[in-house]
Design goal:
alpha/beta, 15 helices, 17% strand, globular
Length: 378
C-alpha cells in the first residue's frame, strides 16, 4: 500500500513523534511505501507551555519526513488536502490527542477522502481532553466525523468515541517503547544524571500537568516518610512550577525530593529508569499513558491509580499495584510495594506481560480497520 502518516515527527520532540516514526518503520518493513508529513507549525509559541518543541538531533535517514502542515493556516490545510487527493495514498494514518488539531486534521481528511480511494484511519489517544474547553465538542465532531476508522487504546476512549461516530473501531493497547534502549548499571546511570548512587529513588516521570496528580504523590510522600529514599521527579513543567515548589516547601520535603524539571531527551530516558526501582503514576484522570510503556521496556514495577485505562495496562499485583487517586491510598501502595521481596516478585512477571504490547500488533490492527473501511465502501 501507499501509506501517509500525518502528525508529529522529527524535528518535533516527545513520545508522539517516536510513535509515528516507529509505526512508519514497521510499515516499511512490510514492504509498504511510507511517507510522514509533519508540521511546519505544530503549536504557536504563545500556546506551547514548554521551553522548546524541537530536538537538535539529525533527522532519521531511514524515513521520508516532510514538514508541510501548519495547524493555524486554513489555506495550508486546503493545499495539503488537495495534495493528498492527488497523491491517492491508500491509507492516511493520523494520530489524534487534542481537539486543537481538529480543524487542521479534519479539513485535510475531508478533502483527501474525496478521491474515492484514500481511507483515513486514526490511532486515537484521547477524545475528551484532560483540560476541558468550550470548543472541545464542536472540534471533536468536526474531526471524528471525517475519519473512516479508529484504533483506540483504552475502553474509556472507546466509550467517549461512540458519542461522536459509528465508524469501525477496534482495540489495541499502547505498544511498549523500545527506542530508549536497554538499562545501564545503576552507578553509571546516577553519575550520568548527577545524583547520589548511595540513595534509593522512586520515580515520577513525564511532563508535569495538574491532572497527573504530582501534588497527591508529594502529600503521600510526606505522609509515608521513608528512610534512605528520595522521590525523583523528572519532567518539564506544563503547569505552575511555583505551586509545586511551594507545596514541597510547605511539606518540608526539600531534602527528600530531587527535582529535575526539564524535558528528558530520548537518549537520557534510560538513565532515569536505570536509577529508580519503582515508578509512580498518581493520575487524577487518564486514558492510557506512554510512561507505563517505558516502564515495561525497563521492567520497572509501577504504582498507578484506578483511573481510565491504567488498570488495563498495569494489572494489579502482576507488574505493579493499583490504588485509588487519594493521598492515603498512594501512601499505602508505597508501603506495600516496598515490602521485602515485592519488587522482585513484580519484576518476574514482566517477561510474560510485555508480550501484549508490540508495534507489530498495533500496525496489524490499523490495517484491520483499513480493510473494514474498504469492505464498507463496497
Amino acid at each position: 500500500m501507499k501509506i501517509t502518516l500525518l502528525g508529529p515527527a522529527h524535528p518535533y520532540r516527545g513520545g508522539l513523534a517516536s510513535i509515528m516514526e516507529t509505526m512508519a518503520r514497521e510499515y516499511q518493513s512490510r514492504g509498504h511505501e511510507v511517507r510522514i508529513y509533519t508540521f511546519t507549525v505544530q503549536y504557536p509559541s504563545l500556546l506551547f507551555p514548554g521551553k522548546t518543541q524541537y530536538v537538535t538531533t539529525p533527522a532519521p535517514e531511514d524515513l521520508h519526513i516532510e514538514r508541510v502542515m501548519n495547524t493555524v493556516n486554513p489555506l495550508n490545510w486546503v493545499r495539503l488536502g488537495l495534495r493528498l487527493k492527488r497523491e491517492k495514498p491508500d491509507m492516511v494514518l493520523m494520530k489524534y490527542w487534542t481537539p486543537f488539531m481538529a480543524p487542521c486534521f479534519g479539513t485535510i481528511a475531508r478533502i483527501a477522502r474525496t478521491n474515492g480511494i484514500t481511507k483515513v484511519v486514526c490511532q486515537i489517544d484521547n477524545v475528551e481532553p484532560h483540560e476541558h474547553h468550550i470548543i472541545d465538542k464542536p472540534c471533536n465532531h468536526y474531526y471524528l466525523g471525517a475519519v473512516d476508522g479508529f484504533v483506540y487504546m483504552s475502553e474509556q476512549v472507546h466509550g467517549e468515541l461512540k458519542a461522536y461516530t459509528s465508524a469501525p473501531a477496534i482495540f489495541s493497547p499502547h505498544p511498549m517503547f523500545e527506542n530508549f534502549g536497554k538499562a545501564v548499571e545503576r552507578d553509571e546511570a546516577c553519575r550520568k544524571i548527577g545524583i547520589d548512587p548511595k540513595v534509593n529513588y522512586t520515580l515520577f516521570f513525564g511532563l508535569i500537568r495538574d491532572y497527573k496528580g504530582l501534588d497527591l504523590l508529594l502529600e503521600a510522600w510526606a505522609k509515608w516518610k521513608p528512610e534512605g529514599r528520595k522521590l525523583l521527579i523528572a519532567g518539564e513543567f506544563y503547569a505552575s512550577r511555583e505551586k509545586y515548589i511551594a507545596l514541597i516547601e510547605r511539606l518540608g520535603l526539600q531534602d527528600r525530593v530531587m527535582l529535575h524539571d526539564h524535558f528528558v531527551a530520548d537518549e537520557d530516558v534510560r538513565y532515569y529508569f536505570s536509577t529508580a526501582d519503582c515508578l509512580v503514576l498518581p493520575y487524577r484522570t487518564a486514558t492510557q499513558s506512554g510512561v507505563t510503556q517505558i516502564a515495561y521496556n525497563f521492567s520497572m514495577p509501577m504504582i498507578v491509580t484506578r483511573v481510565g485505562g491504567l488498570p488495563e495496562i498495569v494489572p494489579d499485583g502482576r507488574v505493579g499495584l493499583v490504588c485509588e487517586p487519594t493521598v492515603e491510598a498512594i501512601a499505602d501502595a508505597l508501603q506495600k510495594i516496598y515490602v521485602e521481596g515485592e519488587l522482585q516478585r513484580l519484576r518476574e512477571n514482566f517477561t510474560e506481560e510485555r508480550k501484549r504490547f508490540s508495534w507489530a500488533a498495533m500496525c496489524d490492527k490499523l490495517e484491520e480497520v483499513y480493510n473494514m473501511t474498504k469492505k464498507e465502501a463496497v
